[in-house]
Design a protein that fits this description.
The protein is α/β, with parallel strands linked by helices and 324 residues long. It has one domain: Rossmann fold (3-Layer(aba) Sandwich), CATH 3.40.50.620. Strands 5-4-3-6-8-7 form a 6-stranded mixed beta sheet, with helices on both faces. Strands 1-2 form a two-stranded antiparallel ribbon. It is globular, with a radius of gyration of 20 Å. The structure holds zinc ion (2 copies).
Length: 324
């Protein structure tokens, strides 16, 4: 049985690009240090910042919230978790339970936004009525709510995208010629005053497998199932698999790829002109924003403005960020 390279206890994992074995305690520390270095290197979080962690209930969001909770005192920032109950049946109920248990165990305030209660529709219903794929509606709703919570709380929004996710997105954007999308796949996307909250990706250098082993090594609650709408044959997934095969013969090739993606930004386009949505006042690529259009079609009313007020109320109820 292999021994931990640090303490000699029984090892649970081997990290090929370090040629090191780790016991569960030291494995957890290895991942936490990886996140700490990413935060420092790319200046993702500074002392005194507020950070809202978007938590779905899956393993990556558990890794995100746990590593940030560990680093909160060391760096000196405020942390709150934000969960959207998407009302996709049992899957959503199980996700919310996992997030509640996680947040309470880590001592982090949690805000839950239930889309059925707050908006009056569910993702499957919206998908049927608008004849659009569930994932595209879900993505638009999530993007809007994450941004709204960041702007309302004056916080940076941290998402749990891991290294493999970023690589999958990057290769897909490259393949589709979406260079603007590609240029945004940096560890941080700057905010626009009053319109868009800064977005950060603290797990930028954490491999999917590492995130999984971290959650196991700490015994964190998470939902094991994938979203029922997830497509296992999507282009991103196939690109991820391709890079994982490369990584087997060339350990750390993924880290190298991300290093260039993060720093060189060769495909960044010039400054784009941003506008405010006339309905809700948040970022729009021109005219009424996607969320206000979508909610108007589904409910007869553009809901952005009301959602912003509601998020502030929910944060107040939780006593989060001194708004209580
Ligand atoms: Zn050890
Ligand atoms: Zn709007």
């Amino acid at each position: 049985m292999a021994k931990c390279s640090i303490c000699g206890a029984e090892a649970i994992a081997y990290v090929p690009y370090q040629k090191r074995y780790y016991c569960s305690r030291h494995y957890a520390e290895f991942v936490e240090e990886k996140v700490a270095r990413t935060i420092e290197k790319y200046k993702l979080i500074r002392r005194g910042d507020r950070v809202v962690a978007a938590v779905s209930g899956g393993k990556d969001s558990a890794t995100l919230l746990s590593t940030l909770a560990v680093l909160r005192d060391r760096v000196g920032f405020e942390l709150v978790a934000f969960h959207i109950n998407l009302e996709i049946g049992d899957y959503s109920q199980a996700s919310q339970r996992a997030v509640e248990e996680l947040a309470s165990r880590l001592g982090v305030d949690l805000i839950v936004f239930d889309i059925s209660r707050e908006l009056g529709f569910t993702i499957p219903e919206a998908s049927r009525r608008l004849r659009r794929p569930a994932c595209s509606i879900c993505g638009a709703v999530k993007r809007y709510l994450y941004n709204a919570v960041g702007v309302e709380l004056g916080a940076k929004v941290a998402t749990g995208h891991n290294a493999d996710d970023i690589i999958g997105f990057a290769l897909k954007d490259f393949a589709m010629g979406d260079y603007e999308g590609l240029s945004k796949l940096t560890p941080m996307v700057e905010g626009v005053d009053g319109l868009a909250a800064p977005r950060i990706r603290p797990l930028y250098n954490v491999y999917e497998k590492e995130s999984f082993l971290y959650v196991l090594s700490k015994g964190l609650p998470y939902i094991h199932r994938d979203c029922p709408f997830a497509r296992l044959t999507s282009l991103e997934v196939q690109f991820k698999e391709f890079f994982n095969r490369l990584e087997e013969s060339r350990p750390s090739i993924k880290l190298g790829f991300l290093h260039h993606l993060a720093r060189e930004k060769p495909w960044r386009l010039g400054e784009k002109s941003y506008t405010a949505c006339p309905e809700c006042g948040l970022l729009s690529s021109g005219g009424t924003c996607t969320f206000c259009k979508l909610t108007r079609r589904l409910t007869g009313e553009a809901r952005g403005r009301r959602v912003r007020v509601r998020i502030k109320e929910l944060a107040g109820e939780r006593g989060s960020m001194g708004l209580g």
